[in-house]
From TrEMBL:
Membrane topology, record value: Single-pass type II membrane protein
Domain Alpha 1,4-glycosyltransferase: 221-335
UniProt similarity note: Belongs to the glycosyltransferase 32 family.
Main location: Golgi
Molecular functions (GO terms): hexosyltransferase activity
Annotated compartments: Golgi apparatus membrane
GO cellular component terms, A-Z: Golgi membrane
Organism: Artemia franciscana
Designated name of the protein: Alpha 1,4-glycosyltransferase domain-containing protein
Length: 340
């Protein structure tokens, strides 16, 4: 009964982009853990926009004074006060690769307590994701105030909406928190990854493509059951409207020129093909031998948390994930338990 997000995403993207990948063979309910996240987000179902605005607390923005130049954003929407080992590994890798610029983690469940490692990372900022503050009084409040959204928003939609709101406010790089940076990702200008929907997005806040995404998102009729509605579908529509002069020009380079964006190869952010996601946690694979040409060029390692989170990693083992964690998040890795 679940619409498989990746499957739909691939269908969506192959319509527009060239794609030889077919996720449909992969028998996993990728998003079977989608759930009603009203309570962790303090979303009260029956409120109207004006009621919402009234209750908006004039909360001081804790780091309004930081420079958002070359900022990296992560969003964690599952409502827990801390990050999983794997997520925190992604954060350390980003903090290291982008050490001259802020890395900002928004968490729906953040309770104000930072781990010692986080406190000592000078370019890391952690903040509670406050949707009222982020979205009310913006063009996106239509979706946010929609009764269907308020009744039972799902995590993916909250995350899709928030990343666009953040990018529109500050510009910057958004990455899903299951991407471990192996090197800086700030040399591509504004970019999107071919065939990756909205998992990695870097926009200038005035980017015409981002402005279009924002505009379309604010005018959408919310439908809870449509997983890609606020993500891949909107992006696809915006790319089509802004980057293509006509429907048959399926050419990334031309499209990119028209809308001032680079479409980068999927392998740079996902050197592991989808059918190997699980193997990378279970088999002993040497990082130096694994697809060396691809890995050498790659910028990030996408570990597809929704597929692999339930697979334990043994700290004494040499699965690819363990090798990557050791190498790219060495500080926090030391404190991981034997099985993580
Ligand atoms: C931002 O403001 C806070 C609180 O006023 C202050 O502690 C912090 O040092 C400031 N940061 C910068 C980069 O100015
Ligand atoms: C916040 O959550 C952490 C667990 O992640 C816990 O150790 C800490 O005591 C909590 N702090 C408060 C103020 O509730
Ligand atoms: C979602 O959760 C909220 C808060 O717990 C509840 O009021 C609402 O009825 C739930 N919605 C659905 C559709 O279950
Ligand atoms: C952002 O990062 C890139 C890549 O490191 C750098 O070339 C650029 O100058 C940075 N932008 C600013 C405004 O510092
Ligand atoms: C690796 O760690 C696991 C879990 O702690 C343990 O069961 C296993 O015996 C260890 N293997 C080796 C070779 O030390």
């Amino acid at each position: 009964m679940f619409v498989k997000r990746w499957q739909a995403l691939t269908a969506v993207s192959s319509f527009l982009f060239f794609s030889s990948v077919h996720y449909s063979k992969f028998e996993t309910n990728f998003f079977s853990d989608s759930k009603n996240v009203s309570s962790s987000l303090n979303i009260i179902p029956t409120q109207s926009t004006s009621e919402l605005r009234d209750r908006k607390s004039p909360e001081a923005t804790p780091f309004s004074n930081i420079s958002y130049v070359n900022a990296t954003f992560f969003i964690e929407v599952r409502g827990k006060p801390d990050l999983s080992c794997r997520q925190i590994c992604a954060v350390e890798a980003a903090v290291t690769a982008h050490s001259d610029y802020p890395v900002i983690v928004y968490m729906t469940g953040f309770n104000g307590t930072l781990s010692p490692w986080m406190e000592t990372s000078p370019n890391l900022y952690v903040r509670k994701l406050n949707l009222d503050e982020l979205i009310l009084n913006t063009h996106l409040e239509n979706v946010y105030a929609d009764k269907n959204f308020r009744d039972s928003p799902i995590v993916e939609h909250v995350s899709d909406l928030s990343r666009i709101a953040l990018l529109k406010q500050h510009g910057g790089l958004y990455m899903d928190i299951d991407m471990i940076l192996m090197k800086p990702a700030l040399n591509f200008g504004s970019f999107m990854v071919k065939n990756q929907g909205n998992g990695v997005l870097r926009f200038d806040e005035a980017s015409p493509l981002l402005v279009k995404v924002y505009e379309l998102l604010g005018n959408i009729k919310y439908n809870r059951d449509d997983y890609n509605l606020l993500g891949a579908k909107i992006i696809k529509k915006a790319v089509k409207e802004v980057c293509y002069s006509n429907d048959c020009a399926l050419d990334y380079e031309k499209a990119g020129e028209i809308c001032y964006i680079n479409f980068v190869d999927n392998e740079l952010f996902s050197p592991v093909p989808w059918f190997e996601f699980k193997k990378l946690f279970t088999r002993n694979i040497n990082l130096d031998n694994f697809r060396p040409k691809v890995v050498k060029k790659a910028v990030a390692f996408h570990f597809a948390g929704h597929v692999t989170n339930s697979i334990p990693v043994f700290k004494n083992g040499s699965s690819l994930f363990n090798e990557i964690a050791k190498k790219y998040c060495p500080k926090i890795y030391r404190s991981f338990p034997d099985i993580y």
